[in-house]
Amino acid sequence: MRRRNWRLIAVGTVLLVLAVLFFLSMRDMTLWSNDPVALMRTVGEVSGVVGGISLAMIAFGLIGRKAPA
Which superkingdom does the taxonomy of this entry point to (predicted)? Predict the structure, then answer.
């Protein structure tokens, strides 16, 4: 039987929410940017990396580890 790691799941969920909020909040900054395309490309890459890391953390937390015998 495996035990889920709830701390890892919680941190992954918080990171995923922060990545989405960062992406959505930076959309409003394109109005004041000199190069909005480059800005959103960079913001998308950063949000994607953080989102991918958070999904991996959630997956590893759900898989869990072996319970002590």
Answer: Bacteria
